[in-house]
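Tokens for chain A. Residues wanted.
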């Protein structure tokens, strides 16, 4: 079976953010993701759905999970995958994002996965290039596949998202993961709470339509899911916290703070973790509590679903969606 013979899933030919997705589109991606969990657990993990297609990973920021899972997702669906080594590319000679992307575009990829330090970078490329663009994280703006994999993990573990209370804790200010999760979880009917010191809450947080807490005890009370975020020290120009020790004392997740949440609450973290800063090791490594490894597994599956969905769009209307003459 090729992607051309399958029903379309997404309205657009890009995945730039959770904003713009509908509940049926997301549900369809989850269902497709489930089938790719099964494929990834099988001995033969390879399908031919994207045979002949080219995927390029263009990452301007460090990544372990996101880049490798897009690579595996592409390969498991039969695509040719190119990982651009940005540090040793012409970017180090001062080439602009647009010039680098236009050069890659001329090699006729079908899908470009981009991570960049500036908000809006993926959207900009989607307007300039002929191929489908997937946002793998743009500044503090969005990281849609992370939110999709988080929500799929929750749905698999608890059977639903609607009606759950999810507490997102830590460095909200610098987090694209938080912004995409807030949008997606709210759209799927969860109650979202943010817990952070005032210095790590964005000024516009009260317009997110979520409950805001500066105290872990109050914010975690009754939560079904505790989602911890990394302190993004590389994005901090001034002093946002007194010290990492102090931060752990008030906001780091340990057994005592976790006891404020609902009994049996699940703990998530998008990785990479700062152990002993935002999360205690014994919680991160406890398989009865932590679903961190499952999040990584769902990352490959949901990215396979996203690539599949985008490829269906390309097959549906190759000239219109890609602009190729
Ligand atoms: C996140 C990111 O890059 O936004 N990581 C990830 O994709 N798993 C979160 C982070 O870097 O803290």
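Reply:
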């Amino acid at each position: 079976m090729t992607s051309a013979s399958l029903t379309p899933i997404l309205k657009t030919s890009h995945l730039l953010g959770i904003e713009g997705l509908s509940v049926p589109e997301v549900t369809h991606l989850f269902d497709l993701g489930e089938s790719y969990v099964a494929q990834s657990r099988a001995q033969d993990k390879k399908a031919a759905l994207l045979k002949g297609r080219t995927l390029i990973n263009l990452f301007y920021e460090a990544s372990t999970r996101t880049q490798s899972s897009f690579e595996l997702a592409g390969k498991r669906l039969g695509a040719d995958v190119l990982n651009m080594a940005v540090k040793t590319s012409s970017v180090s000679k001062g080439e602009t994002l647009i010039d680098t992307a236009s050069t890659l575009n001329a090699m006729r990829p079908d899908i470009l996965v981009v991570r960049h330090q500036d908000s809006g970078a993926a959207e900009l490329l989607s307007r300039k290039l002929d191929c489908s663009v997937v946002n793998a994280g743009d500044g503090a703006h969005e990281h849609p596949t992370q939110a999709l994999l988080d929500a799929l993990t929750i749905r698999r573990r608890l059977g639903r998202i609607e009606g759950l209370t999810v507490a997102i804790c830590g460095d909200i200010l610098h987090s694209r993961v938080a912004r995409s999760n807030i949008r997606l979880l709210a759209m799927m009917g969860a109650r979202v709470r943010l817990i952070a010191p005032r210095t790590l809450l964005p000024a516009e947080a009260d317009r997110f339509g979520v409950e805001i807490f500066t105290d872990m005890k109050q914010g975690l009370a009754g939560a079904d899911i505790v989602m911890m975020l990394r302190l993004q020290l590389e994005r901090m120009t001034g002093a946002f916290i007194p010290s990492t020790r102090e931060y752990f004392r008030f906001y780091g997740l340990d057994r005592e703070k976790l006891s404020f949440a609902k009994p049996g609450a699940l703990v998530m973290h998008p990785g990479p973790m700062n152990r002993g800063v935002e999360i205690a090791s014994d919680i991160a490594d406890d398989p009865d509590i932590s679903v961190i490894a499952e999040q990584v597994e769902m990352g490959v599956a949901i990215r396979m679903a996203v690539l599949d969905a985008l490829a269906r769009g390309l097959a549906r209307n190759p000239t219109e969606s890609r602009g190729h003459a």
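The chain is about 40% helix and 15% strand. The pocket of N-carbamoyl-L-aspartate is lined by residues 65-66, 137, 143, 146, 176-177, 230, 232, 270-271 (CB under 6 Å).
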